Amino acid sequence: MHSSFKKKPVVQLVCRFCDSCICKRGMKAVLLADTNMELYSTDAPCAGKISNVDKPYSTGKCECRISDTACNHCGNNVGYTIMIPCVPCLQSCNNGHLWIFNSTVVWAEGQLDKSGCDVLRWDSLSECPGDDNSQESFHEDKDDIDCIR
Ligand SMILES: [Zn+2]
Ligand SMILES: [Zn+2]
Questions:
Q1: Distance (Å, rounded) from C-alpha 10 to C-alpha 122?
Q2: How many angstroms is it from 99 CA to the middle of ligand 1?
Q3: Number of helices followed by number of strands (H, E) in the chain
Q4: Taking the chain, what is the end-to-end CA distance rounded to the nearest angstrom?
Q5: N or C, which end of the chain has less CB nearby within 10 Å?
């Protein structure tokens, strides 16, 4: 991950429709194509909290194949996941996160670090998600998607 991402606070993301926690490792992000659009991204959502819906599709802006995601508890759409990133996107400097949440449908809550005095930031998170967050398929391709720098 590029160093500029490491100082960002880690946020917990909660579905606005049903108050389920869907991600403990969220990062606030902006869409490169539209910087007014606020998003949250993660490298690993909580296991079993969200599912892909419908078939993968491309947005037309690039060749990435993406799939919409929905909250498993209430079924509402919460964002999307990049199933197959395209080459230009892989080569651009990004945070390597393939799950994106729409800021209008999730609440973000800051978290405290181990000392309990400071906000938890990405550089104090372990590289690998903890057991409760892990997604098998993600680990296999993680090295390929991290920022090249
Ligand atoms: Zn792309
Ligand atoms: Zn929900």
A1: 6
A2: 13
A3: 3, 8
A4: 8
A5: C
Helix (H, G, I), strand (E, B) or coil at 138: helix
Distance 62 CA to ligand 1 centre (A): 4
Rounded distance, CA 82 to CA 88, Å?
14
Q: What is the per-residue pLDDT across 88-143, written as a single tens digit (0 to 9) for each?
A: 888 876 788 999 999 999 999 999 998 899 999 999 887 655 444 444 434 444 44
Q: Tell me, rounded to whole angstroms, the distance of Cα 31 from its chain centroid.
A: 12
Residues in the chain: 149
pLDDT tens per residue across span 7-40: 999 999 999 999 999 999 999 987 766 778 889 9
Residue 58 lies in domain? 3-141
pTM: 0.79
Q: Cβ distance 55 to 39 under 8 Å?
A: no
Please give the tally of structural domains in the chain: 1
Q: Is the dihedral of CA 51, 54, 56, 59 positive or negative?
A: negative
Phi, psi of 94 (to 5 degrees): -130, 180
* Ligand 1 centroid to residue 115 C-alpha, Å: 39
Query: How remote is the CA of residue 90 from the centroid of ligand 2, in Å?
Result: 30
